[in-house]
Each structure stands twice: as structure tokens, then as C-alpha cells.
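Mods, move this if it's the wrong board.
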Amino acid sequence: MINALIIDDEPINIINLQRLLEQHCPDVQVTGTANGAAEGIVAIQQLRPDLVFLDIQMPDKSGIDMLKELSSPNFALIFVTAYDQYGIQAVKFAAMDYLLKPVDTTELKAAVDKAAMAIAKKKQHQQMQYLVEILQQGQRKEEHRIALPSLKETRFVYTRDIVRCESSNSYTHFYLKDGEKITVAVSIYEYEEMLAPYGFLRCHQSHLVNKKFVRSMVKESGGYLLMLDGSIVPVSRSRRDDLKKGLM
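Not the wrong board. C-alpha cells:
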């Protein structure tokens, strides 16, 4: 999913663009809107969007002036304007594209596709940088981190800080020792082999635990693990013996 922010001083324009995106660009999720440049700057800082749809003519400050106030913009940009003379300025600001109001759906889809390619390249570049970092540093296992791509960002979490993982359909929930929960759209099966070298054990079809956070293995109620954070994790009968060996 591409997390998008719409900045426009006219609410009706925001509503119309949201509807067009819902109907024609299902991979775009509008996570926020702003009714002017000042609100837009705050929203960009808080939401860190992948893609920004930015109106140019706004009463408090133009979209171009707003961009000048951002120290290091890190998003794909599509200008939305009623004035085609701003197109050249949009190109100068490295916009992915610019759309004229009223927005044409064919042009909208083309602009979003172009932005998606740029966003994917940027994310792949970040992942490649992290891979090179791991290979070059040769870190000890307790210093290794895992990349967890959520809707808003890719989090890099130390494996030593993960208490347990729990699956829900095609999603996996990661529970950290500080109480934070991170959800990723990846099956738990893909993490089992990845985390096995770091002391993680599969105790149930839907659960994976970090053995250093296991307080006790309780026999009653069919068997379950009591974790140091107070959570209770079920143990399936077929995995009970292997789990006991792994916890020794």
C-alpha cells in the first residue's frame, strides 16, 4: 500500500480526489488530509507519507512555498492545480507529475503508477542498504535487527527485544518487551525459519516465542506458556515435546 496525504484548501477537492483514488487506485491509502500549507507541514512531519498530492494555489501559502520550508522532503509528489502554468515549476521541484483540475482519471492512474515505481525503488534501496550493513558489520546475534514493514513505515527491531509473534490470517503481530505491538502483512511461517537461530520456538500453529522471555510452561488447561510480560501463549499437543527440549 502507498500511504498518501492530500493537501488542498478546498474540502470538496479533497473529497473528490479521495473518491477517485478509492475507485481507480486501490493501492493508494489516504492516511491524512490538510486544509492548507501550515497544516500540510505538520501532517507531513507526523504521518511521513509515501506520496503527497499538493495543491499549488492556497490562501495561506502556496504549495511551492510550503515545499521550500521542508528541510529534506522524502516522499513522491504530485501537484494538483487549476493552473497549467505551474507545470514547469512542478517539474523543477522534482514532482512525479502534476494534474490539472478537474482531475482526469486516466491521468491520475498514470501519475500514481509513476509515483509507485519511484516509491518502490526508494524502499528497495533502503532494504539493500540494511542488507549491506548486516553483511559488512558481521554483528553478533544479539545485535541483529529484523525489518518489519508496516503500513506507515519499515521498522528495524532488535531480535532480542521481540517477546513473541502471533499470526492472524496472513498477518503477523510482533509483541516487543516495551509493550509495543507491530503488525505486518506477512505470514508467520516466513518468520519461523528466519528467527530460529535467535532462540525463537514454534509452540503452536499461530504462535512463535522468544525462549528467553518464557517464565514457565504450565501443564493445566491443555498446556500453555506463561511469558515474562504476563501474556499467555497456548501450546499445541504435537509441539509439546520439541518445545520442552528447546527450552532446556
